[in-house]
Design brief:
- The protein is mainly beta and 349 residues long.
- It folds into three domains: 63 residues, no CATH class; 72 residues, Immunoglobulin-like (Sandwich); 169 residues, Porin (Beta Barrel).
- The chain has an eight-stranded antiparallel barrel with strand order 11-13-14-15-16-17-18-19. A four-stranded antiparallel sheet has the order 7-6-9-10, with no helix packed on it.
- The N and C termini lie far apart (120 Å).
Length: 349
């Protein structure tokens, strides 16, 4: 006998052995047709089925790994409060109600006017304590109660159409962080001649008739030192009668100062230093007692000044202030200078 071919395989028989008939079997694996003979077909089918089952079991795991998804179960709550421009940091205490009693749950320090926490559902209360520049605690807020509700599964609901007669939602005002304090206030300002030719006018005596108005602004980004600028206008009157003559003088001064405010005692009191320059205008007259001699004079002179004052807060807007200024006149000839003690009130906003 010779060599014969099957449908799918070349099978060679020995000349001394009878010819065996090989039947081909088709097995479809994942869309492809695989041919095998009946001798090895049963084993092949078992291997293919096992491989298919293996991939079916492994597929969800591979899909989960390639998808990269996870479930987030942590919820964040934010507690906020009004900014205190004089606070360096805040202490936040949160307590949770447990069987009618409150037990501490969170105690943190922060430099921001808010805190983010992750609390479980339940009843809570919290309070905030501000600390000044010297890290001393101030008057804290009263306990504020709040509730953390369980998270709800979102669902789609029918839209709610508001009635035309329904009231509009209440609007809330959001205040921006304060960066500048503006202040203005009047003051009583007597004059005390100190040296030079000015004592010839005032006869070396303190003149009690004087008034001033101060207007300025300081930057409050720092809790300790606040730089700023100040504009001050002052008026002085001198009218005296002596044995043989009388003298009248009226003086108006305008000053521009650089100022610095240093807070202490928990932002209740402050020390203010200032230095600047200005211009003064004076009108005066001299008259003898017998009216035989009478003269008037006016003039203008530049001056420099420096001073220090003490400020005491009397609430959120009102303050009291007292100080002492030294003024040096930039005149030709003999130098002159005088002191200006003063006291006044003012408002800041």
């Amino acid at each position: 006998m010779g060599t014969r071919k099957s449908k799918s395989f070349l099978f060679t028989t020995n000349q001394h052995e009878p010819t065996r008939t090989i039947k081909d079997v088709e097995v479809k694996v994942r869309g492809r047709t695989v041919l095998c003979n009946e001798v090895s077909c049963a084993g092949t089918v078992r291997e293919v089925c096992g491989l298919i089952l293996f991939f079916l079991l492994l597929a969800p795991t591979l899909a989960a790994q390639s998808g990269g998804y996870y479930l987030e179960t942590r919820y964040v709550q934010r507690l906020t409060w009004t900014v205190d421009g004089y606070a360096l940091r805040y202490e936040v205490i949160i307590e949770k109600e447990d069987s009618g009693e409150y037990r501490r749950a969170v105690r943190e320090f922060t430099g921001e006017p808010f805190i983010e926490v992750s609390l479980a559902a339940g009843q809570y209360r919290y309070r905030v304590i501000p600390y000044d520049f010297f890290d001393r605690p101030g008057t804290g807020l009263d306990w504020i109660n709040f509730e953390v509700l369980p998270a709800q599964i979102p669902e789609i609901r029918e839209p709610i159409v508001a009635s035309p007669d329904a009231p509009e939602p209440e609007s809330k005002t959001v205040y921006a962080e304060k960066n500048v304090d503006v202040y203005i206030g009047p003051a009583w300002t007597p004059v005390f001649p100190l040296y030079g030719g000015i004592d010839l006018i005032y006869e070396d005596e303190m003149q009690m008739a004087g008034a001033a108005l101060r207007f300025g602004m300081v930057f409050v980004k720092s809790d300790f030192f606040n730089p700023g600028i100040e504009l001050a206008a002052s008026w002085y009157a001198f009218d005296r009668v002596f044995d043989d003559h009388s003298v009248t003088a009226h003086t108006l001064t305008v000053d521009f100062n650089l100022a610095g405010r240093i807070w202490f005692a928990g932002h209740v009191a402050a020390l203010i230093i200032r230095a600047g320059a200005g211009i003064g205008m004076q009108i005066g007259s001299y008259t003898s007692s017998d009216q035989s001699v009478s003269s008037t004079a006016d003039g203008m002179a530049f001056h420099v000044n420096t001073g220090v004052s003490f400020l005491l807060s009397a609430g959120k807007y009102l303050y009291f202030e007292a100080g002492l200024d030294l003024t040096h006149l930039l005149t030709e000839g003999e130098a002159s200078g005088y002191l200006k003690p003063w006291a006044g009130i003012g408002v800041q906003f």
